Amino acid sequence: MKIIVEAKSLSKEFQGTTVLRNINLTVEKGEFIAVMGQSGCGKSTLLYNLSGMDRPTSGKIFFDGQELQELPEPQMSSIRLKKMGFVFQKANLLRSLSVRDNIIFPAYQAGIFKREEINENARRWMEQTGILSSAKQDVRKISGGQQQRASICRALMNRPQILFADEPTGALNSSATGEIMDIFNRINAEGTAILMVTHDGKVAARADRIIYLEDGAIGEELILGKFSKDRREEREKRAAAFMR
Ligand SMILES: Nc1ncnc2c1ncn2[C@@H]1O[C@H](COP(=O)(O)OP(=O)(O)O)[C@@H](O)[C@H]1O
Ligand SMILES: [Mg+2]
């Protein structure tokens, strides 16, 4: 299988404090990886570095074979916009725009799809995530869970090759979480790689493998294989045992 993102000896320090230690990680095209670990162990920092939103102190990051640090900023921004999707811990929505306008904004910036396709894609994602009735609302007026779903819609608009998701279901109840994870499994089956941080073992059980980050280094790993609905209980049991 081809590799979409690769970290080689990635280390990250903030003011002399080491947060990521010598990380070697490959994400294959169409792979779904869950990253777990205690608060403060470096999960978000890992996502920021792998996606080129932050730069490592040492080591290299490759996206589709290209070393990210060697790319000039405009090219890196273009890759982030057109080939990567992001769901942050906080939704980071533009406060002056409606739910729908927040979702379609990066699609217009990218210019990959025509106006009608953008409108139809936005409608479809809002419907699938259950926020279609809030499309015209001011983002300040909707709940945290709805904001999180809007940021998921926004991340999927340009059909990214890889989705970086930092606790994407953190603000959702269990039924909404299940619906979002069904979407993640579906887009993953259609070829989008996913790197997702989560504290929820049931959510992690949807991934192909679970990586445990410990004090900035990759510790144990659990291989689950491709998700299938009929093996859900067994996967959840294995993920729960792995977390202990
Ligand atoms: N921009 C930053 N400046 C200084 N320290 C940071 C910065 N970002 C993260 N850290 C520190 O790095 C460590 C890991 O943070 P983070 O990656 O957010 O952990 P996690 O997502 O696993 O909870 C924490 O100790 C945090 O305080
Ligand atoms: Mg975090």
TrEMBL record:
Keywords: ATP-binding, Nucleotide-binding, Transport. InterPro entries: AAA+_ATPase, ABC_transporter-like_ATP-bd, ABC_transporter-like_CS, ABC_transpr_LolD-like, MacB-like_ATP-bd, P-loop_NTPase. GO terms for molecular function: ATP binding. Residues 5-240 form the ABC transporter domain. Pfam families: ABC_tran. SMART domains: AAA. PANTHER family: IMPORT ATP-BINDING PROTEIN (PTHR24220). This is ABC transporter ATP-binding protein. It comes from Kineothrix sedimenti.
